[in-house]
Amino acid sequence: MSTPTDPGLVTSSAAVALLNPVADAGRAAELRRPVAAWLSRHAPGVSLLVPDSILEARAMLTILAPRTRVVLIGGDGTVSAMLPALLKGGLKVGLVPAGRHNLLARTLGLDELTWSQALVFALRSPTGPVDVGLLDTGETVTHFISQVRVDRAGGLGRWGTAGWSVWADDQRLPTGTARRVLLCNALPQWSTPEGLPVQLNDGQFDAVVVGGAGRWLRWLRPLRPLGLPSAAAPMPHCQGRLLRVESDRSLSLRVDGDLLAASLRVQIELLPRALDLAGSHVAILDPHRFVDTTW
């Protein structure tokens, strides 16, 4: 019996693959020929799209029929850039990690696969709904899939940061000497599944706030120790569906690894179960049980 990552002949007529040639500083473009050859041999009905820009990529997706499976070859930034078209078109998504930031792939259990294993998995495996996020600064609106980092610019006084406020749902959170808020929809690089309990389909975000000296401040409730790269106190965090940050100094924003224009305010909203995605969040799947897919 074939497994989800045993190539054979993949029959998936309602599917396309889309490669981001600038992912991972352009290194993803090296996959163009081997992926095209693999598709020609194992999935002849699947076209490989290699757009020159985000706008061209979104335009390619808008003409696809609803429920078409789109295999994205790239990282977190590729997925977030395609979210407007994916959500509007009701498209299913598989992922081949090939970006600089691959937190989504790590959360889905795909980070240790070869690209060919990930490609078979992306084409064959069932999909399930996951949450996505929507960030609004008043001037810019953007979707995200994995993580948002909000940094308050400027130095901090001894008595804290009276010039900014953070709200999770309807509760104002103490910031003390904090100068960074990290909102996670996927596992952070420094965490383990046993640490910060981030899930892609739990209907809420997980957020932590970082102190000025690198210490972690208490928000709502304590969390057991994490798999941090160095010794640290138990990591506090909060969960919710709406996060608001307002500041008297510029807020630096990174969304799925990409830098956005600075702002004095930001609102981040969770969109529960908005995207159909193949990965380990689908209960019947274990992406780490694979056969050899070398060819």
UniProtKB/TrEMBL annotation:
InterPro entries membership: ATP-NAD_kinase_N, Diacylglycerol_kinase_cat_dom, NAD/diacylglycerol_kinase_sf
The domain of life for this entry's organism is Bacteria
Query: Which parts of the sequence belong to the DAGKc domain?
Result: 10-139
UniProt KW keywords = Kinase, Transferase
One term of GO molecular function: kinase activity
Query: Per the record's keyword annotation, is Transferase included, yes or no?
Result: yes
Q: Under which name does UniProt file this protein? A: Diacylglycerol kinase family enzyme
